[in-house]
Automatic annotation (TrEMBL):
This is DUF1585 domain-containing protein. It comes from marine metagenome. Residues 8-80 form the DUF1585 domain. InterPro entries: DUF1585.
Amino acid sequence: ERGAWPNGLELDGFADLRQMLLDQREQFMKNFTAKLMSYALGRRIEYYDQPSVRRIVSNAEAEGYSWSSVVIGIVESPGFLMRARTAE
């Protein structure tokens, strides 16, 4: 399947999509981490969460961008550890 991104980049199938994601791995991981962290926190990511996101991505890079390093980084982040608990 052919497609085009809003920035004009054209993709022709899964191989092109995969290559584009590999070429922009750091940006992909920043976005993925922010979205997963938002889900884990149950709220939007705020400006004060950005240092945690950058730290998580940096640590993940050192570990080959493993998914487990991202998840561990999120659950060890200050935002996750200090999140408000809801009554059951």
